[in-house]
Amino acid sequence: MKLKIAKLPGDGIGPEVVEQAVKVTDAVCSLFGHEVEYRFGLAGACAIDATGSPFPEETYRICTEADAVLFGAVGDPRYDNDPTAKVRPEQGLLAMRKQLGLYANLRPVETFKPLIHKSPLREELVDGADLLCIRELTGGMYFGEKGRLDGGDTAYDTNIYHRYEVERILKLAFDYARRRRGHLTVVDKANVLESSRLWRQVAQEMAPLYPDVVTDYMFVDNAAMKLVTGPEFFDVMVTENTFGDILTDEASCISGSMGLLASASIGEKTGVFEPIHGSYPQAAGKNIANPLATILSAAMMFEYAFALKEEGAAIRRAVAASIEEGVVTEDLSAGGKAYSTSEVGDWVASRICR
Ligand code: IPM
Ligand code: MN
After folding, report:
1. Residue 221 annotated in active site
2. The pLDDT value given to residue 57
3. Span 280-316, pLDDT tens digits
4. Is 142 one of the annotated active-site residues of the chain?
5. Does residue 245 carry a catalytic annotation?
6. Residue of the nearest CA to atom 7 in ligand 1?
7. Pocket of ligand 1 from Cβ distances under 6 Å
8. Engineering a disulfide at 332: which of 72, 259, 326, 328 sits with its beta carbon 3.0 to 4.6 angstroms away?
9. Any idea which ligand is nearest the CA of 90?
């Protein structure tokens, strides 16, 4: 198969971790006989520096012409403490999501036995947790009308959802629940928010079409608690954009390191595969960042964008081996030898086998 991949490393540690995912992708392609072609695109602060835009037209074109996008991270401390900045790196990510129609963000959370002790939660709580968070990604407060009134002293963001947006994400969630353990939890704040009541109404209409799925409804505050008191309750969780942003950071703690969590954003055009962690500027250029989340995102890319299950599984096995054998970066090494970002990438690439 011929794989056309857009490579958007972005800012901070993005380039270092994406480079490792590329090594691993190359190893998979040479073993399984695929031809791979990468095209580089700018996104985030580096794109602002070079072109003035955080998601230049050229990058959009490269993405739409590719079969999958491998993305690193965006963000730069130069912008974080400046609420007046007119253009920000994060706008590049949001523009990419909107322009590529990436309405579904899939964030699987699983535990790795050898790392369970790294979780801030007690071992018996997290052992066996295996959930898929599905976050709506192109609606809600992130994209609703926002602005300032009263000469700047009043500010608002609108949490708006249209029925079609809710239907398509719920359909995807029911389908995933069906393919997993048949349990879907719809997370909302229907006791307070009108938009949540629309979500719940649509979900209740759709649930009878999926008699093989057990559907339940949970308020977001309760879900936040349940994630840390009994995460094994969840199979597939679906929620709106802002709740999903917050809950998936929380859920990432379950596995012990944010450096392990991969994600896939899929929708109308090319899918984007990226780690859930940010650009971690303090570590940029130091060759210490954990590349496993990005490498696992490459596994999701094989599985979701190319329907190449075996290739994805080969990456997952190599990553599991690196964890078992302690070939990991300092965030996971627990006093043992810490390997560098590139050493972990080389090791995982060298362990790709059928
Ligand atoms: C994420 C990030 C982004 C978000 C930021 C960088 C805009 O936190 O992908 O979860 O809030 O969606
Ligand atoms: Mn986030």
Report:
1. yes
2. 98
3. 999 999 999 999 999 999 999 999 999 999 999 999 9
4. yes
5. yes
6. 90
7. 90, 93, 245
8. 328
9. 1
Domains of the chain, earliest start first:
1-110+258-354 (3.40.718.10), 120-255 (3.40.718.10)
Output the residue whose Cα is nearest ligand 1's atom 5: 90
What percent of the chain shows pLDDT beyond 70?
100
49 noted as active-site residue = no
> Residue 170 carries which side chain, given as an amino acid letter?
L
Query: Within 13 A of 296's CA, how many CA atoms are on the CB side?
Result: 26
Q: Tell me, in angstroms, the distance from the centre of ligand 2 to residue 350's CA.
A: 32
Catalytic residue (one of 26, 175, 245, 346): 245
Q: Judge whether residue 112 has pLDDT over 90.
A: no
Which residue lies with its CA nearest to atom 11 of ligand 1? 245
Burial level of 194, CB count in 10 A (0-12/13-18/19+)?
Answer: exposed
